[in-house]
Amino acid sequence: MSPGLLFSFVVAYFVILLIVAWYTGRGSNNDSFFIGNRNSNWMLVAFGMIGTSLSGVTFVSVPGAVGKDAFTYFQITLGYFIGYITIAYVLIPLYYRLQLTSIYNYLNTRFGVMSYKTGASFFILSRTLGATARLYLVVRILQDAILSSFGVPFWLTTLIILFMILVYTYEGGVKTIVYTDTLQTTCMLAGLIICVFYILHAMDMNMAQSISAMQEKGLTRIFEFDPNSKLFFVKQILAGAFITITMTGLDQEMMQKNISVKTLRDSKKNMVSLAFIMLVVIGLFLFLGGLLNLYGAKLQVSATGDALFPELALRHMPPVISVIFIIALISALFPSADGAMTALTSSICIDILDLQRRTDWDEAQKKKVRQRIHLMMAFIFLLFVMLFEWVNNPSMIGVILKVATYTYGPLLGLFAFGILSKRTVNDRLVPIVCVVAPLLCYVVDTNQAVLFKQFQIGLELLIINGAFTYIGLLMISRRKI
């Protein structure tokens, strides 16, 4: 299919998003932007959060990694399940009890202003790096598949995508995103299922036959039992649980949508539903990854990793599948990028600028500041995407999870200490502890061979980072009088 025709479908899809955004964003104010007026339907939030949790990286990287790691990513998914349940019954009740707009206000209540600002700053850093890494992968595919044929440079492609996201989130924020994410998740999952059925049909196989063929190639292995391996099942499950607790439960983007739900009971139902749905959806992505490896081997395609799915979908499948792939890919991109941009805008406005406490500004002035921050975040996204283009790592999901072990560790330690301990901390020293902990983790990570010999630390570095932060907070704390 010609790039021009593919681009026309992208434009048509974006027009539909704009219509939904215009309809749902009418009469929006700052409260609508930040928390959707606490009036969101829990089923819509739960369904839309599938797209936010997965992103374009999952759509491409998880199937692409099957050729190397088989189905071992499902070990992390089991950890995700544990993490979602923990969020539902530990963190969400806490957020509702305190009636938070920003979840980092908890740190202000528990420790003090410096802890609050530190937690918000680490979220801003973490989400900016994670969201732009996800955005980079999808922009790179769109650039190669469509816009490079028009002579459009990579930076301009990124700018076009960011402009699209800005246009439909500029007014409505969370109120709009709840609906647009639902539409986009539907398109993404439909694309996933259609691609699975097409490959099964093209290879003249049913599901049982395809699984048998995958087993013969060693692609269906789920559990790794070697304790020295980074993929050891205990490490992966623990890492998955803590990644979810931090990247979802301690993340303003993800919790912003949850606390927009009407009641605590519905918000908990949303999270528990998501836990079960994610097991099925990621299992389906892994199955697709197995099919892609079988199909690629049959066609003698040399592409591997993140390049495998785009190569097959755009060059070795019928034009209609190419369109479905591009739409599904964009649908996987937008819920991650639009939610991140909105949440980062909210965190800077509420946590850093204290927008809601500014009595000297009227509503119109606050809205103007919020919109300027929103524009600034789009520019920052552009800069970081260009940085990832320069790095050009072949597996972006590995990059994202690795970055998360460093940047989310201090948040894990802060919230764990606040919830599990009754001690008070020296608030002024908290930023120092939160900077030192990741640095210690870097020392441990780069000296693994010396410290642990054959034993390898993987994503559980996040837990070690949180533990370093917890110990540091313990050292600067005292008993509550």
From TrEMBL:
GO terms for cellular component: plasma membrane. GO terms for molecular function: symporter activity. The chain crosses the membrane at residues 6-23, 44-66, 78-98, 119-139, 145-170, 182-200, 231-250, 271-296, 316-334, 373-391, 397-417, 429-445, 457-476. It is found in: Cell membrane. InterPro entries: Na/Glc_symporter_sf (IPR038377), Na/solute_symporter (IPR001734), Sodium:Solute_Symporter_SSF (IPR051163). It holds the Pfam family SSF. GO terms for biological process: sodium ion transport. Its main location: membrane. It is a multi-pass membrane protein. Keywords: Cell membrane, Ion transport, Membrane, Sodium, Sodium transport, Transmembrane, Transmembrane helix, Transport. The keyword RNA-binding does not apply. PROSITE patterns: NA_SOLUT_SYMP_3. Belongs to the sodium:solute symporter (SSF) (TC 2.A.21) family. This is Sodium:solute symporter. It comes from Chitinophaga fulva.
